[in-house]
């Protein structure tokens, strides 16, 4: 279980704007077709597939296989087939038994080539994940709640707990053993991560919903200055409370990074924004 932050991430994650966690991947459907939001919050279109296709479709730019099962579930698999992600609609009907008209298909299972798997069970009203069951049968409870005004609610993940067993249908979730808790501002930004021992492990500050600093458990703070404080803004300077500093200059095809001693590095990337080389 870990967190990733990307200031240009599409949509709002379980931990607020810019944040992604494993399991938050999903497929969305609109008039333009299907699109995939990965575990880094990136959104990209998916090729058309049908359950009658004999072979999965290779999506070359992302190096993944994409297919559709006869039950309407979509599968995204790694190139070597070692890991596959299964996506399914949360609601079906007599008129749409496979959920072909569903606007969103969340992740319902992760499987590997050895038969290990994780299952995701969603809350019937919110559509947010409620339980994760891992390959060892352990049950994790994801508690979501509103951190803003009732008139304009912002649902966020408040805690993750380990349960003794999966509650029966209709039974309230047990308290379990809290593994991590999250605290937020009234605007829905993640402020603090609190471990099972009750200590603050990470804290964050924001400007216009963009992270501008984070502090670890040892007290080290990193700061960020952006070209402008919107999701398309780029980091111009990153510095720490230890006196470290990096400045960023953006060019077509590469980014140049200069440290506090004046040393520079270049990171070159291709048309898919994949790193191709690093120049010292």
Protein model, in words:
The relative contact order is 0.09. The protein has no helices and 26 strands. Among the domains are: 1-112, no CATH class; 116-198. The strands form three sheets. The chain has a 22-stranded antiparallel sheet that branches. It has a two-stranded antiparallel sheet with strand order 1-4. The protein has a two-stranded antiparallel ribbon with strand order 2-3. The two termini are 34 Å apart. The model has no long low-confidence stretch (mean pLDDT 91). The protein has strands at 4-5, 12-13, 16-17, 19-20, 26-30, 33-37, 43-45, 57-59, 64-68, 74-78, 83-87, 104-112, 117-122, 129-133, 139-146, 155-163, 177-184, 190-195, 200-207, 210-216, 221-226, 235-240, 245-251, 254-259, 264-269, 275-279. A hairpin with a 2-residue loop joins strand 19 and strand 20. By secondary structure, it is mainly β. This is RHS family protein. Residues 1-43 form the DUF6531 domain.
What helical percentage do the residues reach? under 10%
Shape: globular
Task: List SSEs in N-to-C order.
Answer: EEEEEEEEEEEEEEEEEEEEEEEEEE
Low-confidence stretches: none
Overall pLDDT level? 91
Structural class: mainly beta
- Number of helices, counting only DSSP H or I runs of 4 residues or more: 0
Q: Could you give a short account of the major beta sheet?
A: 22 strands, antiparallel
Compute the gyration radius: what is it? Answer: 21 Å
| Number of DSSP E strands | 26
**How far is the N terminus from the C terminus?**
34 Å
- Tell me what portion of residues adopts beta-strand conformation: over 45%
């Amino acid at each position: 279980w870990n967190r990733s932050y990307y200031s240009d991430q599409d949509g709002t994650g379980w931990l607020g704007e810019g944040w992604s966690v494993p399991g938050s991947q999903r497929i969305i459907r609109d008039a333009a077709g299907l699109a995939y939001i990965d575990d880094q919050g990136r959104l990209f279109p998916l090729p058309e597939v049908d359950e009658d296709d004999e072979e999965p479709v290779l999506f070359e730019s992302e190096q993944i296989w994409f297919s559709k099962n006869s039950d309407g579930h979509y599968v995204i698999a790694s190139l070597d087939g070692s890991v596959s992600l299964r996506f399914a609609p949360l609601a079906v009907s007599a008129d749409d038994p496979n959920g072909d008209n569903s606007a969103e298909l969340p992740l319902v299972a992760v499987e590997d080539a050895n038969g290990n798997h994780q299952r995701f069970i969603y809350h019937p009203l919110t559509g947010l994940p409620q339980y994760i069951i891992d390959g060892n049968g352990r049950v994790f409870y994801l508690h979501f709640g509103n951190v803003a005004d009732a008139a304009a609610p912002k649902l966020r993940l408040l805690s993750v707990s380990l349960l003794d067993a999966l509650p029966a249908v209709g039974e309230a979730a047990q308290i379990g053993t809290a593994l991590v808790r999250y605290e937020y501002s009234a605007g829905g930004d993640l402020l603090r991560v609190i471990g099972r021992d009750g200590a603050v492990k990470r804290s964050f500050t924001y400007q216009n919903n963009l992270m501008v600093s984070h502090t670890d458990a040892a007290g080290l703070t990193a700061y960020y200055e952006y070209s402008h404080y919107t999701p398309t803004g780029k980091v111009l300077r990153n510095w720490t409370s230890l006196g470290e500093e990096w400045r960023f200059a953006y060019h077509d095809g590469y980014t140049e990074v200069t440290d506090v001693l004046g040393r520079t590095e270049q990171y070159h990337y291709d048309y898919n924004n994949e790193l191709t080389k690093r120049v010292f």
